[in-house]
Write a structure and sequence with these properties.
Blueprint: H1 10-26, H2 33-52, H3 60-71, H4 79-82, H5 85-92, H6 100-110, H7 114-117, H8 121-127, H9 138-143, H10 154-159, H11 161-170, H12 183-186, E1 187-190, H13 198-214, H14 228-235, H15 243-252, E2 257-260, E3 271-275, E4 281-285, H16 292-308, E5 316-319, H17 328-341, H18 344-348, H19 355-365, H20 369-380
Parallel strand pairs: 1-5, 2-4
Antiparallel strand pairs: 3-4, 3-5
Helix pairs in contact: 1-2, 8-11, 14-17, 16-17, 16-20, 19-20
Length: 400
Amino acid sequence: MSHIKLIKSAQDHESALMRLMSLMDLDPQPGSAESDEMDVLALLIEKYEEDHFPISKPDPIEAIKFRMEQQGLKNRDLIPFIGSAPKVSEILNGTRSLSLNMIRKLSSGLGISADILIQLPEQKHAIQREVDWQAFPIAEMRKRGYFDSFNGSLQELKEYAAEALSDFIGSVKSGFNLQPALLRASSHLRTNDKETDPYALWAWQIRVLQKAAEQKLPCQYRAGTVNLEWMQNISKLSWLESGPLLAIEFLNKSGIHVIIEPHLPKTYLDGAVCMGIDGNPIIALTLRHNRLDSFWFSLMHEMAHIALHLDGNENWYLDDLDTQGVDDIEKQADDMAREALIPQSIWCRSSLSSAEEVRELAKELQISPCIVAGRVRFESGDHKKFGSLFRDKISDYFQR
């Protein structure tokens, strides 16, 4: 075997080609030194040519037209793959891009490799993921401004759902780690017997992370900040006229994000806790029940998760607080939230049967009487108790 070296120049390439051709003329026996040399030269030449003479990817539209010509197809024959005659014309003249949905149908129907038809990076990423893009509540997400950068119609958004949703999910770090197949591994889910829509839940989580990423806090959260005494001090803000807003301001100034994001249909969420990409905790509230007492209990419950369970990992705690008989983690958070609002030692000695008694206990604890009345209603199961009294709406403080 003659001396073989890496091919680094055009001259090396030419010399290697000449040597390879001379060896091929010899027609060496397999396993001989000349045969081995020929194999090594072929590999070196192939590598050099890949690096220096790359073959350009075929144009997707030209590939479609070529296949049409091969099979004698007319524009109308593409309607089953693309959707309508106007869309076919727009695709073929280059004024409309292929959607991933179209690419899948064209690849299957015309036998064109999807790799050739893919034009956008997000399409390449989307096609590699096992996601049912049409399972997302796209219409509701669009209505709520989840796709502000998309200017087309709802029908167009559904056609380009894979691309739009890939951008949406990819806008936050580890967004694809929250997909339904990984939900049980990444989340602690407190839910009822109703069937939760996992794609709606995923979309809601991404929206919360987006909003938190846009929110700049004045400081980093210090582990151990949230404890029972700290929570009790915050609960006293409910005594003030602007209590909910003051509580959120206080939490923000302690390095905790608070995001208000209404729940999506079939998610049954009241709140959630997770860690943000900035390393600070996020409390997300849906305000699903438009009551002041519900806001304060939800807030305290999520704060309890921070105090007891959130340890800096990527786990989510997702809560439907209507659900009873839950696991130890949720019972711990419920107990701490109740203790922060009304200490058990005080609650046990209280007999609250009138509106005046509710007001007196609220004054003693310096908390909103709505919280006291809400506890009475919950524990008695009589949600009509006190009539129209103590039913302040949380929507009076936030734009829904």
